[in-house]
Write a structure and sequence with these properties.
248 residues; alpha/beta; Rossmann fold; 2 domains; six-stranded parallel sheet; 10 strands; disordered N terminus
Length: 248
């Protein structure tokens, strides 16, 4: 994507004309589960008499594969302990998952995209069956032509899952845009050969996401404005014929 003076990305307006399909990440991108993940992780740390994470520390160390992240904060070091921790984390997370909410603007944005002639899907490191359940809980299933989640709880990577999902879609990679909230989402997009933009309201902060060299939006409202959707123009970061400036 082109850059303006100072290095900011210039998002062509309207951006969506370049694409036929959007692939969304779920956790952190559409679903605001950041605080829940920190709280569940801290419960595991306290049980083992390890120091808890604050938001700054979590933002600095969280990543994929999750096993490496656990090791970074003093948790899993062996295959056996990692599997046990994964069960403990998912059990605690699932017990509270309905406490989470969608990020502001998510419902409106997902509703507006099909009106522009694009289809949408979800690609997630969440286990597939629980992904389907939580998407249905928020009444969003009909917004997507496909939901793709992992077949396990270990969140190693979703790259292979993404390649298979893209093949099933039958849409040229050049016509697909992926939207995520972590550098892993960008890695997956690159393995799939699709464009990617990131939002910094989730599990990785803006300063970390900017290392990826793609557009980074503060929230879904700014993304909707860059997409040229009228309902989001007043909340976006500018507009007009020259496009929107986005951090890098």
């Amino acid at each position: 994507m082109p850059r303006a003076a100072g290095g900011a990305f210039v998002i062509p307006s309207p951006m969506l004309r370049r694409y036929q399909h959007l692939i969304w990440d779920w956790n952190g991108t559409l679903l605001d589960d950041l605080q829940l993940c920190i709280e569940v992780t801290n419960s595991l740390l306290r049980q083992r008499r390890l120091p808890p994470l604050d938001l700054t520390r979590y933002h600095a160390v969280f990543g994929f594969p999750v096993r490496a992240y656990y090791a970074e904060i003093g948790l899993a070091t062996t295959e056996e302990t990692f599997k046990a921790l994964s069960v403990d984390f998912i059990s605690a997370y699932e017990a509270r998952r309905l406490e989470t909410r969608l990020h502001p603007g998510a419902e409106e944005l997902l509703a507006a995209i099909p009106a522009r002639g694009l289809t949408q899907s979800i690609l997630s490191a969440y286990r597939h069956d629980t992904l389907c359940e939580i998407v249905a809980h928020f009444g969003l299933t009909s917004r997507f032509v496909a939901l793709s989640g992992l077949d396990n709880i270990y969140a190693h990577s979703k790259a292979a899952l993404g390649r298979a999902a893209l093949a099933r879609l039958g849409v040229p990679a050049a016509k697909v845009l992926m939207i995520g909230d972590t550098l892993h989402d960008l890695e997956v997009a690159r393995e799939m050969g699709v464009d990617c933009v990131l939002v910094s309201h989730g599990h990785h902060p803006a300063e970390r996401l900017r290392q990826g060299g793609v557009p980074v939006f503060p929230n879904l409202h700014a993304l909707g404005a860059a997409f040229g959707l009228p309902a989001f123009q007043s909340s976006g970061s500018g507009g007009g014929g020259n496009g929107n400036l986005v951090s890098r």
